[in-house]
Each structure stands twice: as structure tokens, then as C-alpha cells.
Amino acid sequence: MRKNRKKTAVALTSPAYSHLLRCPICASSMQLRDGRSLVCSSKHSFDLSKHGYVHFLSRPMRTKYEKPLFEARKKVMDSGFFAPVLSHIAERITASWQARAMPLRLLDAGCGEGSHLSVLQQQLSRVSDAAVLASGLDISKDAIALAAKNNGEAFWCVADLAHSPFADRSFDFIVNILSPSNYAEFQRLLAGTGNVIKVFPGPDYLKELRSLLYSSTDSSHSMSLERNVYDNLATIARFSEYFEVLGSQRLHYSFLLQQPLIEPFIAMTPLSWGMKESLVQQIKQRHTLEVTVDLTVIIGGRKAAVY
């Protein structure tokens, strides 16, 4: 896997990538040293792993999202579970970018194991003459390690979105898919004419699974389905505080999971956390499971300055 580190090192020596980065501790610029470390002017140093990603966190962050979850999610995403959503995002980016010759700088904020960013990178590269400079950021080392192993053509980093290792106005497009947001940081990172593309769940998202998990008569798990319906009004309002909404699209479709995908599907979603193991096993033993994908894609740009 050292070839991935070498690929990343070569990329970081190019002006296109080197100008994207800044030290997450002191905000000064960083340079690659000896092909192995990013070092800022204040001597803060961050090593490239053998898989090619960079770990920017000063201390590990505790999270319930671990390697088995990300491996399971990759299996499900590789089946095309989110294909309509990613195609829609790629089409919107292409429509916005088609007249430009400069490299397209794309960040997936909260990228997980990198499945979404890798698909977007491939789709955009096929339809654009411009180079696609793809970067993925996540707080989970397990997720980023898996992303870097599977895609050596993007820049991957373990970092805190509140203190990201990227310079001001570094990205033309920031995607944020079913992941926590930091809109103030997105404002800082977004180029002047750039777009933030956020994806969040609608009321029918995985409703079949929620019904199976929460319709139990067991009083210890008597949460009603209504209590687990996603409410997007606050999400939209919060997004609108920071960005001018340029468009939104609700994507609603069914996906049939065959038996080999049901177990990884259950493993990838936090919906099953805390449920009785016997109930989870019943669902895993089904021959098929049809689930609803209900997502809204909202696109925003910088608000016009008010004088």
C-alpha cells in the first residue's frame, strides 16, 4: 500500500493540491517534507500513512461508527443503493461546471468510507475535461483508512470538520450526505461561486425497517414509528440561514435488498442500535427486504452581500 502514499505525496507537490491545505492548529500553510509529512511554518507535522491518507486529529475521537459498519456500508453502496442520488448530484455539478476549464475542487465533508465521493469522482471525470480534485474528510480513522485503500486517486484525511485542514475558499463544491454539518466552516471553505450540496432524509426514509424495529410490543422498545419520522423543517431553516437556496429535489424510490445484502444493510444503520438481538436476527433471516429511499438534495450558494 506504499504506492498510495507515493501517489498522495506526488499529488501534494502539485500547486493544485498544495494550495488547498492549511494547518488545522495554527492555520498557516503546509508543505510536504521528505515525501512523508506535511509540515507548517510553525513546525506542526502530520504524517502520511502507508495507505496515503493524513491524520490531522491531535487526539482520537470516540465514535460508535467503527470498521465493521463502514465495511458493511461499502457493500450496500456498491450494490447501487444510492445510485439515483449520486447521479443527480453529479448532473447538478456538471451543469454548473460545464463551461469552466479549471480543475474542479470537490470536498465530501463526512465522507465515511468514501463510497459516495469515489462514485462522484468517477462520474464527473467521465463527462468533464477538467481535472477533478476530490478530497474526503471524516472523523473516523477506520472510515478514512478504508477509503484510502479503495481509492488512491483522492486526498483523504482524518480530521475534525470544525477545524478542517483546508484553506479559505478551497472548494468549488462541498457535498454533505447524511452527515453532520458545520455551516460556518462550509462558508469558509466555499469558493466565491461555489455550491454546497446537502442530502438529508425525508419522512419515508427506510420506513419499512423502522416499522419492523419499532413496532415491537415489548415495552422496552415501544417507540412508535411516528417518533422516528425525520423532520426536515429545522434542517432546511438552518441551511437557509447560511446559504441562498438555489434548488432542491426530493428523490423517492424503492430498493429491493436480496438476502446477502440484508445483514450488511442492518449493520450499517444506527437504527438497529439498542434493539433486541432476537428482533434484529429475525430481520436478517428474511429472503428479501424492500426499503424506501426518501432523500432531499438541497443546493446552496453564498448569499449576496448586503450593503
Automatic annotation (TrEMBL):
Residues reported in the UniProt entry to bind Zn(2+): 23, 26, 40, 44
Keywords: Metal-binding, Methyltransferase, S-adenosyl-L-methionine, Transferase, Zinc
Alphabetical GO biological process terms: methylation
Top-level taxon of origin: Bacteria
Pfam family for this entry, one: Methyltransf_25
GO molecular function: metal ion binding; methyltransferase activity
Record PANTHER family: METHYLTRANSFERASE (PTHR43460), METHYLTRANSFERASE TYPE 11 DOMAIN-CONTAINING PROTEIN (PTHR43460:SF1)
Designated name of the protein: 23S rRNA (Guanine745-N1)-methyltransferase
Organism: Paenibacillus algorifonticola
